[in-house]
Known about the structure:
Blueprint: E1 13-26, E2 37-42, E3 48-64, E4 68-75, E5 80-87, H1 93-98, H2 102-110, E6 113-122, E7 124-131, H3 133-138, E8 161-174, E9 178-191, E10 199-203, E11 208-214, E12 220-226, E13 242-246, E14 252-256, H4 268-279, H5 284-288, E15 293-301, E16 307-314, H6 318-329, E17 337-339, E18 342-344, E19 346-354
Parallel strand pairs: 6-10
Antiparallel strand pairs: 1-9, 2-3, 3-4, 3-6, 4-5, 5-11, 7-8, 8-9, 11-12, 13-14, 15-16, 15-19, 17-18
Amino acid sequence: MIPTAVDRLEPDAVLYLxxxxxxxxxxxxxxxxxxxxxxxxxxxxxxxxxxxxMHRQTRTLYGKNKIxxxxxLPYGNKDFGMYVLLPVKGKTTxxxxxxxxxxxxxxxxxxxxxxxxxxxxxRFYTSSETTLNHVLSAMGMPLVFTSRAxxxxxxxxxxxxxxxxxxxxxxxxxxxKGTEGTARTLLRALKDGDEPPKxxxxxxxxxxxxxxxxxxxxxIFFMGTYCGEDCxxxxxxxxxVVVPHTIKEGIKEEIYRSAEQMPRFPGGEVALMKYIxxxxxxxxxxxxxxxxxxxxxxxxxxEDGSVDAVKVVRSVDKDLDKEAIRVCKTLPKFTxxxxxxxxxxxxxxxxxxxxxxxx
Length: 359
C-alpha cells in the first residue's frame, strides 16, 4: 500500500530509522456487494456528492450520547474491531475529537450494548502524510531537531547528530470484505418480545471518526476521520492529501494538509515555541481558576508566508482558546511550504501550551 518508504536519500543524511505497521482483516460478517448502493454523502461544509454506501442489518454493539452515535464492527475472530463515531445533528467530528480522552473513550465504548442496527457505511480509501517535527517539539522535545541535540549512541563513530525530519504516512482502505491499512514512520538524522425488534439506524452519510482497536489490550492501531470526497485519495496519487477550501474572498484554493516541505517559522521550531511563550498573555480568569492545558490550533500558511484562517481543533477553555487564536494571528510570515518544487498553501497544526508557574 505504501510502495516506497523513502523517495530519495539525502546526501548529508547519516541514517534513517523506519518502523511500519500493516493491518488486513475481513469483517466477521461481511457486507454483501449486491446491497451496496450509490447515495448522497454530505461533507461538513455542506457539499453533497455521490458515494458507494455498503448496507446490512445486524446485531452488534451500539451506543449514543449527546455528541455521537457509536458502532462496533468486529473483524475475524473479534480480537480486532473498528469503532465508528458518527456525530449527531448539530455536532461535528471536531466535537468528537475534542472530548476524546483515553478515560472518556473507554467509558463510552464500555457503555455500548447489543442492538439491532441498520448500517450504512461508505466504501472508502484515505491517505495522509504528516510531518511531526513541530508537534513533537511542542510536546517537549524541541532540542532534538537542533544542533544542541545529544544523540551519542545513534551511529557508531558519528558525532553532532540531530533529527532533521520525523514523517508519518498512513493509508486505510475499507470495503465490503474488510479493512486494509498501513502506516510508516520515518526518522531522518543529519549531522550538524412479540413486538417487532427495535432497529437503530446508523447511517454514516456524513463525516465520522473511526478507530481500529485490539480488544484485549485496548491498543489503538489506527485512528482517523473520514470527511468525504475531500479526503479520498486515488491510489495512483503521491500520498499528499489536498483539501479544497474557500477562504480568501470566496476564492477556491487547494490547501494541502501536508506537503513535501512544510512551512517553516523564521529560526525554526525552537524559535516558534519561544515566540508563542513570550507573546502569550495568560487570561486572568483562567489563571485565577488554575486552568491549564494544551490548545491545538490550525491555520493556513499562504504562498506569501502569511497566516490565515486560524481555528481551534482541540479546545481546553474558551479564554485559553481565544488567547491561542490571538497569538497565532500575530505570527510573522513563515517560509511557505512546497510541493513538487512549487510554493503551495498548507494547513499547519500548532499546539499552544498554557502552564501556570509552580508556586
